[in-house]
Task: inverse folding
């Protein structure tokens, strides 16, 4: 059996940086010399291809147009490779991975995002292990010769997690990511152990790469003392189509009459409101408590156990396809690729 082939896509981020020996300044690595920095790659039975953004992007500067570019690269090379590894900065990796999970419809091959907390050239770097294992996972096939992980995932510090279930939880630790509401897809120790029950099944039909996102979305985090007038100003933006309300606990918010009146007025104007908990783990149970019954009554859509990252990117994806707010609301309440679990 021929070796699997994996395309490495470098978008930017710490993992691809090298320190200048004279100044110590970080600069992007030339992927053509990757094996000089990671000689272990020569021992992996994988045929590697590489594509790098001409200008590496710090993940804080990632935009929907960049998500579309990554999706287009994968679509263009889909038949040539068995899997894909996307090197990406960690700060917004969960957003990009979530977006790609929606943009790559009927995906049946691995798209594994990874990065690092330290540059690849540093002695204590976590970049080498993350890169090597991500490549191994992207190349892995089951007994029938099909991709072991036919979905978009993030690999970081010994754990493989569904991309649209993942959040960054630490700025310094190597274990920077967590999947609070879905089991790890795989864990890397002496052996790579896959949890097949947690991995999406192979899908029917060929890959369809979507080419549009609508970024007219806002996120409003609730906090004690939030003023109705401020929320009203935020909701009054003329081209706004949807708002993610980052709520307390299981989807709760203030019962202040002025605050609720502002939200009702926005709903009556046709604005889509999503209810997503600001807690790292757990889920929205809209209407369970008095403090969320008004949300339920006004037609706010429960985000269940969606992450904010998945909610924002799914909204952008659906708004680009649908003009009718109620149709977007209906599709937001239906899982597309394992991004949330219905209660």
Result:
């Amino acid at each position: 059996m021929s070796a699997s082939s994996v395309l490495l896509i470098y978008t930017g981020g710490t993992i691809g940086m090298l320190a200048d020996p004279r100044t110590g300044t970080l600069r992007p690595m030339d992927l053509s010399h990757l094996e000089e920095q990671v000689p272990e790659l020569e021992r992996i039975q994988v045929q590697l291809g590489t594509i790098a953004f001409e200008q590496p992007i710090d993940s804080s500067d990632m935009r929907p147009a960049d998500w579309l570019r990554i999706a287009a690269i994968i679509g263009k090379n889909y038949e040539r490779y068995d899997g894909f590894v996307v090197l990406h900065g960690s700060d917004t990796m969960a957003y990009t991975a979530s977006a790609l999970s929606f943009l790559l419809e009927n995906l049946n091959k691995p798209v594994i995002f990874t990065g690092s907390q330290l540059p690849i050239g540093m002695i204590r770097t976590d970049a080498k292990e993350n890169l090597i294992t991500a490549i191994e996972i992207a190349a892995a096939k089951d007994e029938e010769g099909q991709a072991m992980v036919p979905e978009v995932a993030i690999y970081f510090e010994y754990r493989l997690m569904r991309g649209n279930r993942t959040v960054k939880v630490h700025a310094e630790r190597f274990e920077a990511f967590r999947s609070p509401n879905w089991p790890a897809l795989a864990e890397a120790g002496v052996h790579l152990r896959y949890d097949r029950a947690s991995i999406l099944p192979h899908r029917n039909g060929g890959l369809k790469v979507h080419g549009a996102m609508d970024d007219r979305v806002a996120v409003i985090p609730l906090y004690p003392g939030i003023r109705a007038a401020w929320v009203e100003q935020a909701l009054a933006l003329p081209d706004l189509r949807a708002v993610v309300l980052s709520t307390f606990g299981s989807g709760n918010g203030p019962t202040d009459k002025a605050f609720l009146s502002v939200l009702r007025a926005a709903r009556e104007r046709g604005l889509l409101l999503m209810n997503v908990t600001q807690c790292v783990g757990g889920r929205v149970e809209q209407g369970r408590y008095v403090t969320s019954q008004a949300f339920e009554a006004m037609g706010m859509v429960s985000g269940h156990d969606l992450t904010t990252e998945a909610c924002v990117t799914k909204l952008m994806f659906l708004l680009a396809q649908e003009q009718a707010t109620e149709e977007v609301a209906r599709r937001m309440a239906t899982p597309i690729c394992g991004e949330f679990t219905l209660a």
User: Anything to note?
Assistant: The longest helix spans residues 64-77. The CA atoms of residues 276 and 284 lie 6 Å apart. The radius of gyration is 21 Å.
